[in-house]
Structures are given as C-alpha cells and as structure tokens.
Specification:
The chain is of the alpha/beta class. It has helices spanning 42-66, 69-82, 85-95, 101-119, 121-142, 165-169, 189-197, 232-251, 273-280, 305-316, 357-360, 362-376, 391-402, 415-419, 421-424, 435-443, 461-477, 491-500, 512-519, 524-536, 540-552, and strands spanning 5-8, 10-13, 16-23, 156-160, 176-181, 201-203, 216-220, 225-228, 265-270, 287-291, 324-327, 382-385, 407-412, 430-433, 481-483, 504-507. The strands form 2 sheets. An 8-stranded mixed β-sheet has the order 1-8-7-3-4-5-6-2.
Length: 554
Amino acid sequence: MTSAVELRGTGVVPGIAYAPAIWTAPRPQLPEHSPNIPEEAREAELAKFQAAAAAVSSRLSQRASHATGVAANVLEANASMASDKGWHKAIAKKMKTGVPAHLAVARVTDEFVVMFEKVGGLMAERTTDLKDIRDRVIAELLGKPEPGVPTPEVPSILLADDLAPADTAGLDPSMVIGLVTELGGPTSHTAIISRQLGIPCIVAVDNLHSLEAGEMLLVNGEAGTIQTGVDATEAEALVKADEERREAIRTWRGPAVLADGTPVDVLANVQDGAGAARASASQAQGIGLFRTELCFLSSENEPEVKEQARIYRDVIGAFPGKKVVVRTLDAGSDKPLKFANFDEEENPAMGVRGIRIAAGQPSILTNQLDAIKAASDGKATWVMAPMIATVQEAQDFAEQCRARGLKPGIMVEVPAVAVQAEKFLQYVEFMSIGTNDLTQYTMAADRMSPKLANLTNPWQPAVLELIAMTAAAGQKTGKPVGVCGEAAAAPYLACVLVGMGVTSLSMAVAAIPAVGVQLAKVTLDQCQQAAQAALAAEDAAGAAEAARKVLVGA
C-alpha cells in the first residue's frame, strides 16, 4: 500500500470495500423569514401539515412492503411515527397560535428530542428516527427533495453524520457497498440493518467530514478503519480476498466445529415464533436467547397466562428436543413495558428493570413462569433471569423455576455476578453472559451513546477479564456458561470466547455462517492462545489485534 490517511471508528459489520465516497443529501433548511399564519388560514395550514405527514407515512409503509426482516419492521415503525397522535396533537396546538406548519414541526420535534434524550436508552436512540421524520415532513411542506441517501451511479461508500433506519433499510447493497457514520453505535438500527444486508459498516468515526465525495476509500469493517490514498491494485486484492471469505460464508452449512474437530454449540437469538421458525431453518442448534419482553412492547396490560403460553409454545416448539433458553421479561431501561414500568427514573439503565420488577410486582414473574411451564409440555425448558445482582436473587429465582420443573439460570450483566460467579453457580444450572450490558456497566458508559462507542467495545480488556472469570467458574463447577450478547456474533471474538471456556455462542441468525466459517479455520489451542493474547492487552484495539494475529497466523 502507498501512504494513506487513516480514520478509525467502531467496526460493526465485517467486510472490505473499495469505492468512491458519496454523502447523504442534506436536511432541508428552514426559510429565514416565516411570518405567522392569519387566523382564517390556519385550518388550511393544518390540513397541509396533515397531508405532508400522511404522504411521508405512506412512502415509508410502501418501502416496508418491499423490505424483509428487521428492515421491514423498522420502516413500518417509522411510518407509524409519522402519524403518531401525540406528535400531531402537539404540532396542531402550536399551529393554532399561528406558527407555520414547517416551524411547528421543527419546534415540537426539538421538544420531543430533549424529552427522549432525558429518558435515555432506546428512547434516546429513537431521536434519530424522529429527526428523520421531521426532515421528510418539512421537505414535503416546502416542496423540496426528500433528504437522505442519493442514488449512486456506481457502487459507492456511503458517508453520513448518522442514518435514519428508513435510509438504512432502503439501501441497495449492490450499489452501496460500504457504510460509514460519524455517530451511531454497535447496537443502533444502522448497525443491525447493515448486518442483515451484509454491508461493511463502521460507526462513531471522528473527523469524517475531512473526506470528500468522489474520494476513493478502502473500508475495513472488521478493523474499523477508513483509508484514503490506497494503491488500487493492493486494495482490489484485499477486496477479492474478502469476496472469497463471503462466498465461504454464503455456502457454509455447518455444523459449527473447530479445525481440530472440537464442536461448538452455536445458537440463535430470537424475539418471537416467526424468528424461531427462521432459526430452525438455519444452522442454529437451538435458541440461546428468547427475548420475551419484545413480544409485549405495545401491550397496555399484562398478557394473561394463556396468551403468554401460546406465544412461548411457538418458540419452544420450533426446536423440539433441542436447547431453548427463555429469558424472563427484561423490561425497563431501553425497553419499558406499560404494565411493568410505572415510574420515571433519572437513570433507568441502573434502575428497576429485569428481575428487580418482581420485588414490587411478584405476580408478573410468577405468571410468566407459569406460562413457560404450560408451554413446555413437561420438558425442562431452560429459563434465565436478567439483571441479577445478588446471590439471594439467584437463589430465589432458582427455587421458583425448580418448583415448576424448569431449569434455572441467570444472565451475567452486572459485574458483581462475574466476580462471584462460583457462588452464584451453587444455586443455578447455567449462566449466559449478556456482553452488551456487561460492557456498559463495567465501563460506566451508556451503550447507546455514540460518543462512548470506544468504551462500549466488548474487546475492552476489563470486560474480557470478567468473561474469562465467569467461564472459569463454569468449568470448575461443571456448569455451562454461554454468551448471548453482540460479542458472540463477531468472528474473531467468538474464537476468543471459545478459548476462554465459553460453552455456547448465541447470536442473530444472519451472523451464524460468518462465525461458523471462522471457527472452522482454527484449533482449540489457537483459540486459547488468542484469548491469552487478548487478555494481556492494555486496550480494546490492542486486544483485537493481538487475537487476530494469533488466529490468522500473522
């Protein structure tokens, strides 16, 4: 390679792309002078706003009808946001005082954004969606082109401050072959949809605006690097090697096994029966995480035991005779449930969430356990509780599970559990490490904050140390310790986890083949050496590079 300028961010979707840069179209600028609307014209102005919002909602719904999976769900959710009654009511109220439609949309949205950011978590992340709806409606009102992703003439690398899910979901992966944003994080919608589309993606890149449209870029989604001034021949060789890797992933059929024949238990993360059905048609060997709370995000009241059992039976039945791990409601923080989370909290991520809800509302937990028992049809379904922090909590939960013939386990998200894992394993049958929350709590960094993406990187040595301690406790007690967070879906990190003694890896179905291909290239001894190398590093970048060198033999 020739001398190159290099920018770094957080790589969230592996892959290498070499192409010219394009920038997203700018948001519409509000007119400098916007006189108040006279009283006799206000009804017409309100109708103008309503028509613009309806047009935006309709276009997003149409895109959703042509999309699949996560992309379709996100587009439909954004279409609903454009017609949200609360947003419309606040805008109409402001317009009654004579504020023009475009200014009312802008001002009300700013107020909502401040409110969402105060709540934090998933609500704060939704501000990107809301700003996107604002810009689309304002553009419609002003008769300007819709902001967002331009249609590239040649395969290109898309650059943006941030991308709304509506933009990411509509990308053509044959023309947008790489994605780089200044904001965003590993768990953002941009990252999730990019994984589904197979587009190399890097987020949280400083100084991104130093790159110009048309500039040739080499993007490495695994390393999190963007380079300019790269020799074209060498760049194309790297792209070709990456294409061969992708072809190996496309044709991989499993099962997951290391090069020395050591089997690896690779499972799927799901949120409903449809997801479980898709997982059963993949190479997944079972379900390592069933996120039950995602079934009830729109429920005003707690679902009855029979209704819950029907939903759970669809998931458990998708893998007859195989491992299915059901997580009890992880409500609160970024996933509040109307029937469970009543009080606003200053710091909901550290507040009453997960198992803590049962302290004040025990019937929510007991009803759910009864429903899981009913759905299990006599099988010993694996059930785990989120946000366990004390041994007594684990003991109480385990007793309730065993009383119903269920196999009790706990999530390892709170560092207190990792440092005393052996004590907890006296009372439960298994542990599953949620690396997203474990990282956030270990590094004291909100996992939704793009400014802290470097701290919420699961390669952080302190996080790896806690995972290793937990896995060691599992080996000593002879009980399984899995990983179900995003770390399991990162191919090199998956090898490191196996090397630490983690007994199962659970991930989104789309991530399984890439992990399976990488596991097949290495032996258990290499995995163990990579784990030791990563643990000896002083920072996340050093840990990732040290492990990579061991795993690729370079």
